[in-house]
Write a structure and sequence with these properties.
The chain is built from 22 helices and 12 strands. It has a 4-stranded parallel β-sheet with strand order 5-4-9-10, with helices on both faces. It has a 3-stranded antiparallel β-sheet with strand order 1-3-2. Strand 9, helix 13 and strand 10 form a beta-alpha-beta unit. Helix 7 packs across helix 8. The structure holds arginine. Arginine (ARG) binds next to helix 12 and strand 9.
Length: 558
């Protein structure tokens, strides 16, 4: 049963709709105060009274029944206490019934969300900096799908630009086909880096010519380009598999080469295009932004031009309700400009575009990531985490079956969780020891807790029925948290913040472990044992659901 909804309907405040009341209901700081709290501060203006007086008045009027058994007013809040045994029974029943779908919803039914994420650059290293966009976008994709939205994952490939001319020139001068084939993306990147340091004037001119050849459809130039592209995609797809993310479209910048003309025409029609030093721009000064460059003086398009074409294409193709861009905050200005230009072009859906910005990830050994031409490849970070996870597992549980597979799930989970645990806008330092700790606020801790639940169930079984006649405080805390999972998933979607789910997983693990220490499970008297076993089963189920939304697996044993 949806308690918030129940309370909101009975809670008679004429100036707010039941939906608004429901929205405002939150969790009080402790269970002693109640199970739900309603802040009265916003009502002070309409009701012309102090929040404290309003809370008292409203609390006095609320009709108590056998669902809501106590109501009180405390410093401007109305606190509600529900019948907790019913809450426990309802919650467990719902988890038993919905299983891996517990937490899902149909609020997104009939709506479409496009998510532009990862968006790698062809022939460039896939490094630690791409971790956040890939796992944040991947998780948002899962969260929105779980809430019933049609979700379109888009990898807006960086596959357009003069750098590909440079690459062809470097390959022509220094490349050996077999070696590049063997070395893959690393060899391609080496060529590109070498061009940066060793290219002569003639090679620079040659590179421009090669770029022109790619553009004009020259066969050889395009074959080489396609080769580099497919090598990059083979490589990144291997990483995507490990990180458990997928895409519905790989339409990158190049895809829009022939879709920019109509954009430019519409800009002209609307009188938005201005000349500036031979280039064409949209003046954004009235909005406090530098101009948005549309065409360079040589007629070449820009990153922004392709993004405008891409946005329009996405609207026409998917008719999205929201279009998200999971891109680092360094591109804040770029997206503000794009969204503003779309608005000026008269597209009312410009308001549905969202830049989901995030902070930087650096490695604790900062020196490694900055040395020129020597970046830290994400694949190496993953490999190291898996190796370290293997060592730890081998020490803790040498007899475990399938240690390699478990280490893979734990190591990769640690990388993903490490990138998703903090509010996304924060800059974070990636520390191997921290993300792999069994005790900290980590994915490993949540996985370990889920496995612990599993081994309790293995011993005690999931009982066919249970009764609940009383609960210890630590049992109540677990029940309440389990009951709030569906709200957590919605909050994560509303805020574009998978960290809500990651924090939830840690919180639930902590509360379960407190219960595990406080209360005997297997050795409890028969009446309470069945309830505790069912509760343990539910915790494992919900932990797994939470981890799945982050793209993380949960080994049965650790
Ligand atoms: N490839 C770009 C980069 O690495 C990110 C692209 C983001 N998506 C977009 N539609 N602009 O910086």
């Amino acid at each position: 049963m949806n308690y918030k909804k129940y309370i909101a309907e009975k809670f008679d405040i004429p100036s707010l709709s039941p939906e608004e009341r429901e929205e405002l209901l939150c969790l009080p700081p402790s269970s002693e105060m109640g199970d739900f709290a309603f802040p009265c501060f916003r009502l002070a203006k309409v009701m012309r009274k102090s929040p404290v007086a309003i809370a008292e008045e409203l609390a006095g009027k609320y009709p108590i029944d056998d669902v809501v058994v106590k109501v009180s007013a405390v410093s401007g809040y109305v606190n509600f206490t529900v019948d907790r045994l019913t809450l426990a029974a309802d919650t467990l029943e719902e988890i038993l019934e919905k299983g891996e779908m517990y937490g899902s919803s149909d609020i997104g039914m009939g709506k479409t969300v496009c998510i532009d994420y990862s968006s790698v650059n062809i022939a460039k290293p896939f490094h630690i900096g791409h971790l956040s966009t890939t796992v944040l976008g991947g998780s948002l994709y899962k969260i929105f799908s779980f809430l019933g939205y049609r979700t379109i994952g888009i990898n807006h490939l960086g596959d357009y630009g003069t750098q590909f001319g440079k690459l062809i020139s470097a390959y022509k001068h220094w490349g050996v086909r077999e070696e590049v084939e063997k070395g893959g993306i690393h060899a391609v990147n080496d060529l590109y880096v070498r061009f940066g340091t060793e290219a002569t004037e003639e090679m620079e001119a040659e590179a421009r010519e090669y770029f022109r050849l790619i553009e004009s459809g020259d066969r050889e130039a395009n074959e080489l380009f396609d080769w580099f592209k497919s090598m990059t995609l083979d490589y990144v797809n291997g990483i995507y598999d490990k990180l458990n993310v997928k895409f519905d479209s790989y339409n990158g910048e190049r895809f829009y080469s022939d879709k920019m003309q109509p954009v430019i025409e519409r800009l002209e029609e609307k009188g938005l295009l201005k000349e500036s030093e031979g280039a064409k721009i949209v003046d954004l000064e009235p909005y406090g932004m530098p101009p948005c460059l549309i065409l360079r003086s040589d007629g070449a398009s820009l990153y922004a031009t392709r993004d405008l074409a891409a946005a329009i294409y996405r609207k026409n193709t998917y008719d999205f309700d929201k279009c998200l861009y999971v891109v680092a905050y360094q591109q804040n200005l770029h997206f503000r400009q794009i969204f503003k230009v779309l608005e000026l072009m008269g597209y009312d859906w410009a308001k549905d575009m969202v830049h989901v910005a995030f902070g930087m990830v650096s490695l604790e050994d900062g020196a490694m990531s900055t040395r020129q031409g020597k970046v830290v490849w994400l694949e190496d970070v993953i490999k190291k985490c898996v190796e370290k996870a293997y060592q730890t597992i081998n020490e803790k549980n040498p007899g475990l079956e399938d240690k390699e597979k478990t280490a893979e799930t734990v190591g990769i989970g640690a990388v993903i969780f490490g990138a998703l645990y903090n509010a996304k806008i924060k800059d974070v330092t990636f520390s191997y020891d921290k993300v792999l700790s069994f005790e900290g606020e980590t994915g490993v801790y949540a996985q370990y807790t889920a496995a612990r639940c599993g081994s309790v169930i293995e011993k005690g079984g999931l009982p066919a029925e249970y009764e609940v006649e009383e609960m210890e405080p630590s049992e109540l805390e677990v029940v309440k948290l389990l009951a709030s999972f569906p709200d957590t998933v919605k909050e994560a979607a509303e805020k574009y913040e998978p960290s809500c789910v990651a924090r939830y997983a840690v919180d639930l693990s902590q509360k379960f472990n407190k219960f595990y220490i406080d209360c005997k499970i297997l050795a409890a008297p028969e009446g309470r044992k069945n309830f505790r076993l069912t509760l343990t089963w539910a915790v494992q189920r919900v932990l797994k659901n939470a981890l799945t939304l982050l793209g993380i697996g949960a080994p049965d044993k650790m």
